[in-house]
Design a protein that fits this description.
Fumarylacetoacetate hydrolase, domain 2, six-stranded mixed sheet, binds manganese (II) ion
Length: 234
């Protein structure tokens, strides 16, 4: 039988799930900007006055990085300043529009440790020229995610440490309760702008301390209660 596709379709992007052979199919990747006050200030923002804002990464920028294994990814082209941003990632198991904050967590399948990797030089140029952020935010392999843990197993992380080390040195350290917009608020607000779908990921923002990595440095993200994420750009 002939294929229904005129050209071979790309493979679906998937993430590994702890305790399951089945994998999580990635639909869209949403990210919230400046969601920790101290990071908003380091990026020149005013956390007391700004409403949340969102951007997206392509689904195939997500890379599954199962725990206990360091994953080597290609260092991206067209940057001299590739920045790490440690973030908790929410994986949606159910979609919807205009989701009530009180009902939002029922849409969550699970959580993972993630990195919103950013070509900061390209993003800074885009900001200065009032251009879109894609070349800064959407590099290939720019959204690694650790092994997902299911909300049915671990509940919904709202407290605890989020930390990022580069070659064993702490570079980012905060707590999840320092988020300006909590996960239920993020889901509720996003669902006013977009029809959320099962398979969507939400990168929930990064604390202060973002910085550039060099090739071959090991980045480790640890979030209390979640599987660690360890990657190296080579
Ligand atoms: Mn980010």
């Amino acid at each position: 039988m002939s294929s229904p596709f005129a050209i071979p379709p790309e493979k679906l992007t998937t993430l590994a799930i702890e305790g399951l052979d089945a994998v999580f199919p990635v639909n869209r990747v949403y990210c919230i900007g400046r969601n920790y006050a101290a990071h908003a200030r380091e990026m020149g923002g005013d956390p007391t006055r700004e409403a949340p804002f969102f951007f997206m990464k392509p689904a195939d920028s997500a890379v599954s990085c199962p725990s206990d294994l360091r994953v080597d990814l290609p260092y991206p082209t067209m940057t001299e300043s590739y920045h790490f941003e440690a973030e908790m990632v929410v994986a949606l198991g159910k979609g919807g529009q205009n989701i009530a904050e009180s009902d939002a967590l029922a849409h969550v399948f699970g959580y993972g440790a993630g990195l919103d990797m950013t070509r900061r030089d390209r993003q800074d140029e885009a900001k200065a020229a009032r251009r879109p952020w894609e070349v800064g935010k959407c590099a290939d392999h720019s959204a690694p995610v650790g092994l997902l843990r299911r909300a049915s197993e671990i509940g919904h992380p709202e407290h605890g440490t989020i930390r990022l080390d580069v070659d064993g040195q702490v570079r980012q350290q905060s707590v999840l309760e320092a988020m300006i917009w909590r996960v239920p608020e993020q889901i509720a607000i996003l669902s006013q702008f977009f029809t959320l779908k099962a398979g969507d990921l939400i990168f929930t923002g990064t604390p202060e301390g973002v910085g550039a990595i060099e090739r071959l440095e090991t980045i480790k993200v640890e979030i209390e209660g979640l599987a660690p994420l360890m990657v190296r750009y080579v």
